[in-house]
Design goal:
The complex is a heterodimer of chains A (434) and B (337). Chain A has 434 residues and is mainly alpha-helical. Chain A has 15 helices and ten strands. In chain A, the strands form five sheets. In chain A, strands 1-2 form a two-stranded antiparallel ribbon. In chain A, helix 2 packs antiparallel against helix 15, helix 9 crosses helix 11 and helix 11 packs antiparallel against helix 13. Chain A is globular and about 65 Å long. By secondary structure, chain B is mainly α. Chain B is built from 14 helices and two strands; from the N terminus they run H-H-H-H-H-H-H-H-H-H-H-H-E-E-H-H. In chain B, helix 1 runs parallel beside helix 14. The longest helix of chain B is centred in the C-terminal third of the chain and has 30 residues. Chain B is globular, with a radius of gyration of 20 Å. Classes of the chains: A mainly alpha (434), B mainly alpha (337). The complex binds CIS-heme D hydroxychlorin gamma-spirolactone and protoporphyrin IX containing FE (2 copies). The site of one protoporphyrin IX containing FE has 19 residues of chain A, from helix 1, helix 5 and helix 13.
Chain lengths: 434, 337
């Protein structure tokens, strides 16, 4: 493994790890606030039990999110010093606001976790909401940084240095809106479905059924609304990419030759040698339509860029297919959820489907980030700085990678194990109190 | 404007050392034998740290963000040439934060797993504190060489040596001292109080000894510490006052004046940091090629303004909410679900 590849793998791995916990941190507090609100309004103890059960689970995930995020803030410098040197004066601003958001979040978590009997109950409820709002905004700030890497603005690049810096323009770059909307909705749907699936499994086991049904409904209401919005937001994202990064779009669709009535592929593996798509089902004209709202529009193919500026086509295409495929599945499940809710009864096969959908949203998030990041290659800052020019000169980066591979693997195993124990104990407790 | 940022750098460093440092110290103390008070001690530390550790930890992140946004000229060489100790630090931070939380939130509180968490938590507390010291010491050694291509002299020599190791030990002792003093006032249990009193006394002595070790180890360095420290009346004064305050500390301890005791201990640590600052300011980093100061390493004006704005607005949120947090939890009688 050469140093560049090791550095990229480390970055991808650390971010891919962090994003799971970050997604939970951004959305779970809202689920809890909803359950907590229902308890305060109705006085029913089930909702209090639910709030506390979720809270205990989330406390562990919060800690893993905080430490893996801290690793990232160092790692950006450890892996990409040249990038940090030039980029942070331009786009550091969202990170500084993110710092403020973290602080509020950390204080609010302390208050919410330990403040049950010590505050007015509505003030206490509000601290829980603040946790959510702060987490949600920190997500927006970070993704805005990534938006800038895709659509750099707010500076002039003169002789290898940024001048005439405008940090505000950099933050509100051309990509920040679609990326943040898409990410926040993705987190909501991924976590909503994951939580609902866990409760569906516990429901099927047959104990404390009423409790798990209520939990499922709260979580999946968030998840389903998000999942129905996501295709629209994703479509918006696709159109923005068509405009801002046509090479990424071409790689996403395995579109080699510039053409009118460009097809959208379902499945398929692009063959880079013959520049053709293999084994896919084409929907003629649909790519043109999706990208430019017109079936006859011309879509530029990869042939327009020199070969060394192509992103890895196969990875980008496959990742895109996975994401969109999962998006479709989750949207259908969401419609079914509302349908069965109105009918007043969820058939077991539907609940089993939910159980198997637990990891889907997270897989889509990982795939979506792969599209964004791999599809931007070979650039780290699109059109400005190449990834290979940004990497650290420190040798032996593969050891850095292995170190974190092992560390995070152990951390993941421990987290899953703790989670299982919590669920077991909570389940026992529910049988006693309910 | 740079002065405002320097103030925030100093403030977040100080707060991280005082608040985060006590958390580290608590972990270090758990490594020591406590006989039958072991469980009581663990319980007390969980209660004292639980609500605040996230907030205490964020000071480090604030520091890193100020550095990379405002002073990339400092951040970049730091992360490049001190890559190895930074990694060591990160591993410690991950294990520490995770195991502290796991220990508290593990649904099944059984002997065996609890022992593993505690062992990892306190082991990583010592480890992380040590590397913090190593990194701090490496900033001023003048061994960071931004021109060499030799792997050893670029990435290892800057932080290897007796002097960084001695500073690492010094930091461990300081953190443990801070935690002991702090925890005395957290409990009414006479036995626990006595335990922490004894530890405060032990670490008081160890801090002084480790301080001597730092001075001794610095003799192999380019500039040895006693020479520079004693040459300047201000740094000398700081050192004398910090040492002299031990007398006040023990008077207050005897009189059970919790708040005053804590203030004095915090004051001593503040003075040590101040002495360090006076020694180097406004330089951030001393390399083989010369000194890098904050003024030269700063980002352009427009960026700094945004950073100052974010910090000032942030402070308006952060400090009131932090006070609220402390007020809610430092009033007596905690119970938790
Ligand atoms: C649950 C997760 C999830 C789901 C179901 C979808 N996405 Fe997505 N997608 C993401 C999660 C995600 C993401 C992880 O959040 C990304 C990575 C970067 C970003 O801003 O969002 C992303 C990126 C991303 C990009 C690249 C944006 C860029 O590079 O600027 C496009 C074009 C789409 N998505 C399009 C879609 C479409 C058309 C979907 C159809 C349903 C879709 N996504 C479903
Ligand atoms: C603010 C947010 C982000 C920043 C600043 C950022 C930064 C970077 C950088 C500097 C690289 C190395 C250059 C490269 O290989 O592309 C990279 C790569 C990568 N990042 Fe991001 N990233 C962000 C968000 C994410 C997230 C949340 C993920 C989640 C999974 C992610 C996934 C990846 C992947 C998969 C790569 C590897 C690309 C490759 O190997 O070709 N990124 N990112
Ligand atoms: C799309 C990418 C990202 C998103 C959506 C995101 C979001 C979040 C959220 C919501 C949290 C709070 C998590 C929790 O408490 O459980 C968090 C924590 C954190 N993140 Fe990320 N993050 C992303 C990438 C990054 C990157 C690239 C960095 C590094 C610069 C970073 C640094 C941090 C830090 C330092 C924390 C810990 C804060 C604390 O102690 O509370 N994150 N992130």
């Amino acid at each position: 493994m050469d140093d560049l590849l090791a550095a990229r793998s480390t970055m991808a791995f650390s971010l891919g790890f962090h994003i799971i916990f970050a997604s939970v941190g951004m959305t779970m507090p809202f689920f809890m606030s909803a359950a907590h609100y229902l308890h305060l309004k109705t006085g029913k103890p089930v909702y209090l039990e639910l709030t506390k059960m979720w809270l205990k689970g989330v406390a562990i995930l919060f800690a893993v999110g905080a430490v893996s995020g801290t690793v990232l803030s160092f790692e950006l410098g450890l892996l990409w010093p040249e990038f940090m040197k030039h980029a942070m004066p331009v786009i550091g601003m969202p990170f500084s606001w993110e710092g403020t958001a973290f602080f509020l979040e950390a204080v609010a978590i302390g208050l919410f976790l330990y403040g049950w009997e010590r505050m007015n109950k509505w003030v206490h409820w509000a601290t829980g909401l603040v946790v959510g709002i702060a987490g949600f905004s920190s997500g927006i700030f970070v993704v805005a940084v990534n938006g800038w890497m895709n659509a750099p603005t707010g500076f002039d690049w003169v002789d290898g240095a940024a001048v005439n810096i405008d940090p505000v323009a950099a933050m509100f770059n051309e990509a920040w809106l679609h990326q943040t909307m898409h990410m926040q909705v993705a987190a909501m749907q991924a976590v909503g479905f994951a939580v609902a699936g866990i409760h569906a499994a516990l429901y099927l086991k047959g104990k404390a059924k009423e409790f798990h049904l209520r939990a499922l409904k709260i979580a999946l209401t968030f998840g389903a609304v998000a999942s129905l919005l996501q295709p629209l937001v994703g479509h918006f994202a696709g159109q923005r990419v068509a405009e801002l990064q046509p090479a990424k779009l071409a790689a996403m669709e395995g579109h080699f030759k510039t053409s009118k009535q460009a097809p959208l592929w379902i499945g398929g593996i692009p063959d880079v040698e013959t520049q053709e798509m293999k084994w896919g089902i084409p929907l003629p004209g649909m790519l043109s339509f999706i990208a430019y709202d017109d079936v006859n529009a011309e879509v530029r193919g990869l042939e327009e860029w020199p070969r060394e500026e192509w992103p890895p086509v196969v990875i980008t295409h496959v990742a895109f297919q996975i994401m969109v495929g999962i998006g479709g599945v989750l949207a259908v499940l969401s419609l079914l959820f509302f349908y069965f809710w109105r009918k007043g009864n969820f058939p077991p096969w539907f609940l089993w489907t939910l159980v198997f959908s637990v990891p889907l949203g997270m897989i889509a998030i990982e795939a979506g980030w792969t599209v964004t990041e791999v599809g931007r290659q070979p650039w780290i800052v699109y059109g400005v700085m190449k990834t290979k020019d940004a990497v650290t000169p420190v040798p032996g980066m593969q050891y850095h990678f292995y170190l974190f591979l092992v560390l995070y693997f152990l951390l993941a195993v421990a987290t899953v194990w703790l989670f299982k124990r919590q669920i077991q104990v909570a389940q026992k407790r529910l049988e006693d109190v309910l | 404007m740079i002065e405002i940022l320097l103030f925030f750098i100093g403030a977040s460093l100080l707060l991280y050392v005082l608040l985060g440092g006590s958390d580290y110290g608590a972990g270090i103390l758990e490594m020591l034998p406590a006989g039958k008070l072991r469980e009581a001690q663990k319980h007390l530390i969980n209660e004292a740290m639980g609500p605040v550790w996230e907030a205490n930890h964020v000071w480090l992140i604030v520091l890193v963000v100020i550095l990379f946004m405002g002073f990339p000229g400092v951040f970049v060489p730091l992360m490049t040439y001190l890559h190895v100790p930074m990694l060591a630090l990160l591993v410690g931070i991950v294990i520490r934060g995770a195991t502290f939380t796991f220990r508290h939130y593990d649904a099944v509180q059984e002997e065996k797993s609890q022992r593993v968490y505690t062992w990892l938590f306190s082991g990583s507390s010592i480890w992380t504190a040590f590397w913090l010291g190593v990194i701090a010491a490496s900033l001023g050694r003048g061994l960071i060489d931004v021109e060499t291509r030799d792997v050893w002299s670029a990435y290892f020599a800057p932080w290897i040596g007796w002097y960084p190791a001695a500073v690492g030990v010094f930091v461990i002792c300081i953190f443990a001292f801070l935690a002991s003093v702090y925890l005395i006032g957290e409990t009414e249990e006479p036995e626990l109080r006595r335990l922490f009193l004894r530890r405060a006394a032990v670490f008081n002595v160890l801090v002084v000894l480790a301080g001597g070790l730092v001075f001794a180890a610095s003799y192999g360095e380019k500039e040895n510490l006693p020479a520079v420290f004693f040459a300047h009346p201000l740094t000398l004064g700081v050192l004398v006052v910090a040492t002299g305050l031990f007398v006040a500390l023990w008077v207050f301890v005897q009189k059970h004046r919790t708040a005053l005791t804590r203030i004095v201990a915090a004051g001593q640590v503040t003075l040590i940091l101040l002495g360090w600052w006076l020694l180097y300011a406004p330089n951030a980093l001393i390399t083989a090629q010369g000194k890098i100061n904050f003024y030269e390493a700063a980002a352009p004006e427009a960026t700094l303004w945004q950073l100052v704005l974010a910090l000032l607005v942030g402070s308006c949120f952060i400090f009131p909410s932090l006070f609220f947090l402390l007020k809610v939890f430092k009033t007596k009688g905690r119970e938790e679900f």
